[in-house]
Inverse folding.
């Protein structure tokens, strides 16, 4: 059973417990999620002017389109205001600022029937925990413009407690940072970077798709199997997502049960505390930072 909670008044501690059991939370837009969406829109609309961002893919040649994204995405991701608004959003949703650590918010785009690589990569079904995320990671996702069933993400809740054969054993986060990420802007048409993926057929149907208005928020465990559905809507989907962990969970090694992740390394070094932007203690990060088998 997977429960979808809507605008739940549950405390953050209880919510994480439910998330680690596979439930999903949906919230109406909050003041800070709306401000974050407004900030992303303003940036995207300036970058793609005079085109409306969800339609810009029909007006620009592939390389020009990718060039705009190559500038827009890092500008949004690294902007101090983006982090500020995420802190506000976490507070809106009841996360304790002194215990909650977050990673910078990503601006993602999913073009319709077009450019499936690099910065416009369409993710295959995956769990974030195949990419060196801790089992206690909680994911936040929100649409920037209207979405519909043909351009959102899909959950496959039946796999929450069932492992999938996958190639995460070949993935190490530190190696990815050293080699993979910088290559993204060079990949326009074909995806050649090695990403963990399923090594068996996944039963994708029936899946679960949640449609919220822009700024509505989905929260789910990083161990939840999810897919970016092939976009056939005719419009590019713009979304924002970020990850968070609670320090008590990290210390206690709490989180979802690991049913199939074999990656090494850890992303924990990327997380900053909501109250003061300090990282987790170095030795705590080190205790998660496993190295690949020789
Ligand atoms: Fe993901």
């Amino acid at each position: 059973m997977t429960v979808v909670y809507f605008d739940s008044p549950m405390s953050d501690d209880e919510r994480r417990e439910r998330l680690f059991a596979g439930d999903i939370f949906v919230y109406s837009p909050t003041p800070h999620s709306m401000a974050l969406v407004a900030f992303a829109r303003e940036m995207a609309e300036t970058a793609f002017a005079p085109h409306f961002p969800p339609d810009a893919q029909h007006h620009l040649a592939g390389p020009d389109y990718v060039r705009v994204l190559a500038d827009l995405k890092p500008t949004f991701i690294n902007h101090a205001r983006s982090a500020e608004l995420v802190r506000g959003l976490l507070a809106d949703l009841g996360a304790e600022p002194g215990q909650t650590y977050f990673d910078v918010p990503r601006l993602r785009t999913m073009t319709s029937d077009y450019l499936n690589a690099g910065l416009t990569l369409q993710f295959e079904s995956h769990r974030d925990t195949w990419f060196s995320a801790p089992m206690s990671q909680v994911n936040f996702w929100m649409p920037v413009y209207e979405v519909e069933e043909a351009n959102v993400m899909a959950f496959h809740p039946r796999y929450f407690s069932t492992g999938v054969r996958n190639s995460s054993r070949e993935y190490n986060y530190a190696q990815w940072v050293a080699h993979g990420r910088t290559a993204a802007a060079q990949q326009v048409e074909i995806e050649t970077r090695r990403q963990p993926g399923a090594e068996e057929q996944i039963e994708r149907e029936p899946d679960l798709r949640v449609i919220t208005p822009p700024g509505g928020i989905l929260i789910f465990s990083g161990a939840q199997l999810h897919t970016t559905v092939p976009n056939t809507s005719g419009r590019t989907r713009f979304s924002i997502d970020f990850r968070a962990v609670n320090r008590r969970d990290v210390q206690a090694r709490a989180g979802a049960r690991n049913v199939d992740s074999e990656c090494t390394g850890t992303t924990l070094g990327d997380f900053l505390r909501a109250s003061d932007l300090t990282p987790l203690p170095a030795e705590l990060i080190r205790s998660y930072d496993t190295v690949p088998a020789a």
Remarks:
- The beta strands are 4-6, 24-27, 100-102, 106-110, 138-143, 153-155, 217-221, 226-228, 237-246, 272-273.
- The radius of gyration is 18 Å.
- Residues 4-288 form a domain with the Jelly Rolls fold (CATH 2.60.120).
